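Q: Joint fold for the lines below.
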Amino acid sequence: MPELPEVETVRLGLVPVMEGRRIAAVRVNRPDLRRPLPAGMADRLTGARVLRLNRRSKYLLADLDSGETLIVHLGMSGRILVAGAPRPGLFHHPQPAAGRHDHVVIDIEGGARVTFNDARRFGLMDLVASDRAEAHPLLAGLGPEPLGNGFDEDYLVARLAGRRSPVKAALLDQTVVAGLGNIYVSEVLHRTGISPLRQAGRIAAPRVRRLVPAIREVLAEAIAAGGSSLRDYRQTDGELGYFQHRFRVYDRAGAPCPRPGCSGTIRRTVQAGRSSFYCPACQR
DNA sequence: CTTGGGACCTGTGAGC
DNA sequence: TGCTCACAGGTCCCAA
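A: Joint structure:
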């Protein structure tokens, strides 16, 4: 579900309710996510103050004043929703009913309630010492942030050189660049006129270089749109993202290619078990 | 080392 | 209405 833009949108929604605030209470309804929740998580979180909320690739990282960092991944179907708590002194204002897959509920001092909901339970949480967070096995192997300084044209040319896998797979490889997923790879390849089927190492360098600004553009536009909502994904206030209305190829099999002057038809194919969408007429 | 395939888990929509 | 199948924003593990 959530790729980098969706996770960044969630982070932006959580910053105002979590940063600088103390965690008042934590309830775990189901500890068996993709991996078991860390031992004693509720106790280790309770009372800690959130210093800063960061993102690395598709991971959210909450640095706590306890010296630990909470790592959260949303998997395919994970959501984080924020609700205001009942206001003291007022007529009782009930919290929204607990949802079917509300696995972890975090109450923030001052009244906000942050709920982690994940139907498929491919998401995960872990707690690590903050000074060793980057070395965490989940994070250590990640490639550069596509919106950061460590990602540029020369780097990508070098990383794709010699690769025989399709460029679709190469861009989904989180050690090459961290944060792209199935939607945005398809969108980037359409914008650059590169077929997802093309072998990564056999794309001329000038075309590889064009991928870099295209990746940055697509991600930035999607973040500005609050991400893409297909099924599960919501912003933290429950609103849908709206970048799905701007998809040029993803989930649009049979539709005419939106590229000006192109008369092709969007096609769906399967690569490594995942759908790819592209225009066979203008993507080569 | 790289690459592909299956596994993990639940929900939804299409087709019969 | 009810069943079955395909498919879904991700990642890990294992075999070739």
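Q: Anything notable?
A: Chain A has a mean pLDDT of 94. The CA atoms of residues 5 and 223 of chain A lie 5 Å apart.
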